[in-house]
Write a structure and sequence with these properties.
This protein is of the alpha+beta class. It is about 50% helix and about 10% strand. It binds adenosine-5'-diphosphate and magnesium ion (MG).
C-alpha cells in the first residue's frame, strides 16, 4: 500500500470547513480599513501637509523632507493604533513575487528604555541588501547596493502585523530592478501623449489615466494531496498524471455552484482583500474542475497591479487556513484548461471620460476612433514586443498549445466596429468642406450599444469588449506590469506619432478633423492585417496569419528576441521607458529564469521516475511474476497466466523506455549546462531537454493505468481535481 498517497486521501476525508467571520455585515463598514488612504491621511495629518501630499500624488512631484517626516509619523501612529509593530518597503523584484524586509519600529533609547520610531528617511528610501535579486548583470556583487524608493501614488497598507510601503526598486546607478519603475515611466509617457491628443477634442482635459481590471484564474487542491506530489510543490505543475476519466468534458463545473469548502475560502480571502482596499467583486467556477476565478473592479493601473500582486500573496496565505494550496501556475494539469489573467484596459480622463467608449455624437466618435485606431496600430507595429512581454516557461503551455489564446497576436473588434473601420478605409474624405462638420458623413454611425459587446471571441489574445480592450494572453502567475508597461508605452508612442502627423497636415492647411480622419484612415489601412474575427485556435488561422506576415513564436527564448531588437531599442529610447542596459539585463534575467525552471522540471522528472515511479512498477511486476510462478507450480496450462505474462512484458517496455529516455535527457542537460550564452542555453533546454518531457510522461501515464491502484504512489488526477 502506497502510504503517502493513501494517508493524504484519508486526511482529505477528515477536513472540516473553518468558520469564516466577516468583520461586519456591510462591506462598506470595513472596506479599506487596513489602508492608509486619503481619508486616514486627512485624519492624521495637519491640513496643509495633507494638501501638499495630495498635490504631489496628483502631479508626481517630489515630496519634501519635512512633509515626509510628518507622513511617516502619521503612518506610524495609525499603524500602531492597529497593533502593528514592524514596517517594510514592499517591492516587486524580477523574481516575479513580492519582496519585503521587515524592520521594527522599536529603537532602544539611551537610558535603557525604548521608543517606537519611524523616520521620514526610512519612509522615503531604503537600502536592502539586494545582491541576490535578479539583476541581469547590472550590479556586480561588489556593488550590491539597490534602493527601494517610496511610491506615494500607491497607499501604504497593513499586512499581518506589518506596515507595508509600496516602493520601486532601483540599482545604485539608477537602473530599474523591478516591475514598478518602468511601469510608472510608461504611465507617465501615456498621460502626456494621450492628454495632448485629447486637446484636439477637449481642452479641459488635464490628465489621462490608464485603467486596469484583472481577472485572476487559479486552481485549488487539498494541501495533503499537494504535499504528496513533489512535482506540484517543486514546480507548480503536475509533470505526470493520466487524465481523469471525468475531466471537463461535461462542462458541468463552469459557473456551477461553488463547492462549500471553496466558498468558505473565497469569502475568507475576499474579506481580507476588501480590508486592504482591493475591490473584489466577482467570483465563479471556471471551465476546468477545481478551477476558479476572481475579479476586482478596475482601478488605475499602478494600483490595480499592486493589488493583484498583493491578492496573489493573500490567496496563498489564506489557503493554508483552509488546508488548500492555490495553484497560480498557467498549466498545472495537462489535458484540461490552463489559467490566465485577463487584463482589461482602457484610458480614462480626469474629467471621467473613457476614451475607449464610443460616444453619442459623431464628434465624440472621432475622439473614440482616434484612441481606438491608434491602439490597433500600436499593437500591429509592436505585436512582437507584446508577445515578448507575456512570455514565460509556464505561459508557453497555453500560448503554444491549442488553448486560449494562440501565440499569434491578433485583434478582435466584433463585426460592427470592423464594418466601421472598413467603411472609413474606403470612404472619400471631403477636404473642401467649409465647416468641419461637413465631412462627418465619412464617419459611419457607431451604434450606441454594441450588440456583440458580450459576443466575445474567446480565442482572441486581444479583444475589444465594448469600452475596453482585453489582453487575454497574460499568464495567471505573471506580474501584469510587464505587458502593461509595453501596451501603454507603445500606444503612447503611437499617439505621439499620430499627433505629429496630424499637426503636419493642419500646418499644410487641412482642417483639424479632416487631418485627423486622414491619418486614421491611413492607419486603418496599414494595420489591417492584425484584425481577425475568426477562430484563433484553428490551423487555418495559423496558415492565414503566416500569409499576412504575422509572427507565431511558440516558445519563450525566441519570443524574447523582440526585447532587444533594433525596433524595440528605438521605442525604448524614444519613450525613455528602458535604457539599452536595462532592456538587455531584463532579456538576460528572463532567459535565465526560463532555462532554470526547465532545469528544475527535468531534475524532478528524473528523480520521480527513478525513485518513485519505477520502483512502483517493478513492485507490481514482481507480484505478477510471483503469481505466474505459483500458477505454473500448480501445473496449470499456459493460458491461465497468459494475461499476466502480457502485462509483465508491457510493464518492461514502459520501464525500459522511461529509464533510457531519462538517461538521454540527463545527457542533453549536461550538454546544455556548459553553454555560455543564455539564449543558446535556453534554446537548448527548450529543444533538446524539454523534448523528452512528453514522451517520458506518456509512458509514465501508461504505467499509472497499468499498475495496481493500491501500489501507485502519486495522487491521481481524479483525486487532485475533484474537491471534497
Ligand atoms: P468577463 O466577462 O470578461 O469575465 P468580468 O466582469 O469577470 O468580465 O471582468 C471584467 C473586468 O473588466 C472587471 O475587472 C471590470 O472591472 C473590468 N472593467 C470594466 N470596465 C473597464 C474599463 N473601462 N477599463 C478597465 N477595466 C474595466
Ligand atoms: Mg474576461
Amino acid at each position: 500500500m502506497s502510504t503517502i498517497r493513501f494517508q493524504a486521501l484519508q486526511t482529505v476525508l477528515t477536513r472540516t470547513i473553518p468558520e469564516v467571520k466577516q468583520p461586519s455585515f456591510k462591506i462598506s463598514d470595513f472596506y479599506g480599513s487596513n489602508v492608509f488612504d486619503k481619508k486616514k491621511m486627512q485624519d492624521y495629518l495637519p491640513k496643509e501637509t495633507f494638501k501638499a501630499v495630495l498635490a504631489s500624488i496628483e502631479s508626481g512631484s517630489p515630496i519634501s523632507r519635512e512633509i515626509a517626516e510628518q507622513i511617516s509619523s502619521a503612518m506610524k501612529a495609525w499603524a500602531m493604533s492597529k497593533g502593528v509593530t514592524h514596517y517594510t518597503h514592499w517591492f516587486q523584484p524580477l523574481t516575479g513575487t513580492t519582496a519585503e524586509k521587515h524592520d521594527s519600529f522599536f529603537e532602544p533609547a539611551s537610558d535603557g528604555q525604548a521608543i517606537e520610531r519611524f523616520a521620514g528617511d526610512a519612509l522615503v528610501q531604503q537600502e536592502p541588501d539586494a545582491s541576490s535579486f535578479p539583476n541581469g548583470g547590472i550590479r556586480s556583487t561588489f556593488e550590491a547596493r539597490g534602493y527601494t524608493a517610496w511610491d506615494p501614488s500607491s497607499p501604504a497598507f497593513i499586512f499581518g502585523k506589518t506596515l507595508c510601503i509600496p516602493t520601486v526598486f532601483v540599482s545604485y546607478t539608477g537602473e530599474a530592478l523591478d516591475y514598478k519603475a518602468p511601469l510608472l515611466k510608461a504611465l507617465s509617457v501615456m498621460d502626456k501623449a494621450a492628454t495632448e491628443v485629447c486637446h484636439y477634442f477637449d481642452k479641459s482635459i488635464e490628465k489621462v489615466n490608464a485603467s486596469l481590471g484583472i481577472e485572476q484564474e487559479y486552481f485549488l487542491v487539498d494541501l495533503a494531496l499537494f504535499n504528496a506530489r513533489p512535482d506540484l510543490f517543486l514546480t507548480g505543475r503536475a509533470l505526470f498524471g493520466h487524465a481523469s476519466a471525468k475531466g471537463q468534458q461535461l462542462e458541468d463545473h463552469y459557473f456551477g455552484s461553488i463547492p462549500e469548502r471553496v466558498l468558505a475560502y473565497m469569502q475568507d480571502f475576499e474579506n481580507e482583500a476588501l480590508q486592504l482596499g482591493i475591490p473584489l467583486k466577482t467570483r465563479h467556477n471556471e471551465v476546468a474542475p477545481s478551477q476558479f476565478e476572481c475579479a476586482p473592479i478596475y482601478e488605475e493601473i499602478n494600483l490595480a497591479i499592486d493589488h493583484n500582486q498583493l491578492l496573489m500573496d493573500l490567496m496563498e496565505k489564506v489557503a493554508k487556513r483552509h488546508n488548500f494550496k492555490v495553484l497560480l501556475h498557467e498549466k498545472p494539469y495537462a489535458g484540461i484548461n490552463g489559467s490566465g489573467k485577463h487584463n482589461n484596459w482602457s484610458l480614462i480622463t480626469n474629467t471621467g471620460k473613457n476614451l475607449l467608449a464610443p460616444g453619442k455624437t459623431p464628434k465624440n466618435n472621432l475622439m473614440f476612433l482616434t484612441f481606438f485606431v491608434n491602439t490597433i496600430k500600436a499593437v500591429y507595429e509592436h505585436a512582437d514586443l507584446l508577445r515578448a512581454s507575456i512570455a514565460s516557461v509556464s505561459n508557453d503551455h497555453r500560448l503554444g498549445a491549442n488553448e486560449a489564446p494562440p501565440a499569434i497576436i491578433s485583434i478582435f473588434l466584433g463585426e460592427q466596429l470592423n464594418d466601421v473601420l472598413d467603411e472609413i478605409e474606403t470612404s472619400r474624405i471631403s477636404k473642401k468642406a467649409k465647416e468641419d462638420s461637413a465631412m462627418w458623413h465619412s464617419i459611419p454611425k457607431i451604434p450606441q450599444i454594441l450588440l456583440d459587446n458580450t459576443d466575445r471571441n474567446r480565442t482572441s489574445p486581444f479583444a475589444f469588449t465594448g469600452n475596453k480592450f482585453e489582453l487575454r494572453a497574460v499568464g495567471s502567475s505573471a506580474n501584469s506590469s510587464s505587458p502593461m508597461t509595453v501596451l501603454n508605452m507603445i500606444v503612447a508612442d503611437q499617439l505621439t506619432k499620430f499627433k505629429a502627423e496630424v499637426d503636419k497636415l493642419i500646418k499644410k492647411g487641412d482642417k483639424k478633423d479632416v487631418a485627423i480622419l486622414t491619418v486614421l484612415k491611413k492607419y486603418i489601412k496599414e494595420s489591417k492585417n492584425i484584425r481577425f474575427e475568426g477562430n484563433g485556435y484553428s490551423d487555418e488561422w495559423a496558415a492565414e496569419a503566416e500569409k499576412r506576415g504575422l509572427q507565431n513564436i511558440k516558445t519563450t527564448p525566441k519570443a524574447l528576441d523582440a526585447l532587444v531588437s533594433e525596433k524595440t531599442e528605438k521605442i525604448f529610447e524614444e519613450t525613455g521607458v528602458f535604457t539599452k542596459r536595462e532592456a538587455h539585463a531584463r532579456h538576460e534575467i528572463l532567459l535565465e529564469a526560463y532555462y532554470k525552471k526547465l532545469q528544475i522540471e527535468a531534475r524532478v522528472i528524473g528523480e520521480l521516475v527513478t525513485n518513485v515511479i519505477l520502483p512502483a512498477a517493478v513492485k507490481y511486476q514482481t507480484e505478477l511474476i510471483t503469481n505466474v510462478k505459483g500458477l505454473k507450480d500448480l501445473g496449470l496450462a499456459k493460458d491461465t497466466y497468459a494475461s499476466q505474462l502480457e502485462i509483465i512484458e508491457r510493464l518492461s517496455k514502459h520501464i525500459n523506455f522511461i529509464k533510457s529516455n531519462v538517461e538521454q535527457m540527463v545527457d542533453e542537460r549536461k550538454k546544455a549546462n556548459v553553454l555560455e550564452d543564455s539564449r543558446d542555453k535556453a534554446i537548448a533546454y527548450d529543444e533538446k531537454v524539454k523534448s523528452y518531457f512528453e514522451p517520458i510522461r506518456y509512458h509514465v501515464d501508461k504505467l499509472e493505468l497499468l499498475v495496481d491502484d493500491t501500489i501507485w504512489p502519486l495522487p491521481k488526477f481524479r483525486e487532485l481535481l475533484f474537491i471534497k
